[in-house]
Amino acid sequence: MREIPGAWRRTARGAGLMSADGVASPTIFAEMSALAARSGAINLGQGFPDEDGPAEVLEAARQAISDGMNQYPPGRGHPDLLEAVAEHRARFDGVALDPGTEIIATAGATEGLAAALLALIDSPEDEIVVFEPYYDAYAALVALAGARLVTVPLRWPDFQPDLDELAAAVGDRTRVILVNDPHNPTGTVFTREVLQHVVALAERHDAIIVTDEVYEHLVLEGERTVVQTLPGARERTIAISSAGKTFATTGWKIGWATGPADLIDAAMTVKQYLTYVNGGPFQPAIAAGLRLPDSFFHGIADTLRRKRDLLGEGLAAAGFAVSTPAGSYFTVADAAPLGARDADDFCRELPDRAGVVAVPLTAFVTDARRPDYATLVRFAACKREDVIRDAGGRLAAMI
Ligand SMILES: *Cc1c(COP(=O)(O)O)cnc(C)c1O
């Protein structure tokens, strides 16, 4: 039989996502959500909203189904969605895009990330630089693509990277610098200076920048810097976003990738063999969402800011040390003042002790760096205010 070099790396087992005998390792999220379901605890673990998004968007999807838009949309995406993404990025980010060549629709941000990484990685020596803690799919995708993950730590309480550590992580083997901003799980929004360094390093080492901007409209403090607008960035950046977090439609899995035509074509080449297409009637519905007035987008940030404040007050009253996230759904709190030594154990006990589920930050880090995040816990603020208030009360009464 012909040997296929490297093929083993592209199996779940080879990537370390399964044990040697083929058993899938359960994620901490699965374990915590099962705990929540079993114990009836309030789930502040997983980041999905517990309320519907804008009625116009939901209605547009119903209408599209009624109108018979139920077959495969075009491979690059429904033209109306591609147009709407271009308008939206011009309106909010000052980025001019050609909807015919510089945008593709993807099955959520996740497929955009997978397509970009699979398209750009071609050797097991290739290095992908990510900030740590990181969204858990990054490490899995890099492993499945058969490349090396190189991490730059973000430290409590502001979670901005050290610029020397960033520079040290990027070298001539760096294929991609992957930047999630606003950042999950820490809630940080990178300073302009950090992002300028990312661009300078990418230029120096001829790396591609992939951004994950799914929280683009959930900036709660200050302003975010749009990487593609920084000098030198436009021609080497694939920006990935999604409707899920903005419109509270995480189950629809409508995302998009934007960038120069050659990079988008490369991602498209992979994307067409991952899902080919997805979400026929949801694509025009998200187009309608992207065209909502500015007030909608400011409104969702204002609402989340109130929820973040409520969550932070509840956590502080319960005795946690609390960081103030500048963006995203999440707040990180330190359980050390409550006597915790290990956030994994703390989170496993939390449903019984308080009736609340949260996720340890160690779920988002490499083994070597677990000690640096040992007592930090991530709480999701994207829940109804009465739910957050209830959770705060339960935590304050914790036994
Ligand atoms: C939720 C999330 C995603 C996944 O987005 P989908 O559109 O559901 O695929 C990607 N990146 C980050 C940082 C997220 O929080």
From TrEMBL:
The keyword Calcium does not apply. InterPro entries: Aminotransferase_I/II_large, Kynurenine-oxoglutarate_AT, PyrdxlP-dep_Trfase, PyrdxlP-dep_Trfase_major, PyrdxlP-dep_Trfase_small. Gene3D superfamilies: Aspartate Aminotransferase, domain 1, Type I PLP-dependent aspartate aminotransferase-like (Major domain). Signal peptide: none annotated. Its cofactor is pyridoxal 5'-phosphate. This is Aminotransferase class I/II-fold pyridoxal phosphate-dependent enzyme. Keywords: Aminotransferase, Pyridoxal phosphate, Transferase. PANTHER family: FI04487P (PTHR43807). The keyword Protein transport does not apply. Residues 42-371 form the Aminotransferase class I/classII large domain. It comes from Microbacterium aquimaris. GO terms for molecular function: transaminase activity. SUPFAM superfamilies: PLP-dependent transferases.
